[in-house]
Write a structure and sequence with these properties.
By secondary structure, the protein is an all-alpha fold. About 75% of the residues lie in helices and about 0% in strands. The termini are far apart.
């Protein structure tokens, strides 16, 4: 990344309020995770130590289409 791009990104982030930062992070993460297959994402979630989230979601039926 160029120095100008890095500097301007820092300036842009500094100007954002919490809601804008959350929106940006959500958009980035949904694009990032959306680029993974379900199996890759499930493996990633487990590797991050969040396997309990998967178990809870499956028990409540949130991921019923995945299994």
């Amino acid at each position: 990344m160029s120095t100008v791009a890095s500097l301007y990104a820092e300036i842009s982030v500094d100007r954002m309020d919490l809601q804008a930062l959350r929106k940006l992070a959500y958009k980035h993460l949904t694009n990032y995770y959306g680029g993974m297959t379900d199996d890759e994402l499930i493996d990633h979630i487990k590797e991050m130590g969040d396997g309990d989230i998967l178990e809870d979601s499956w028990q409540t039926g949130l991921f019923y289409n995945i299994v």
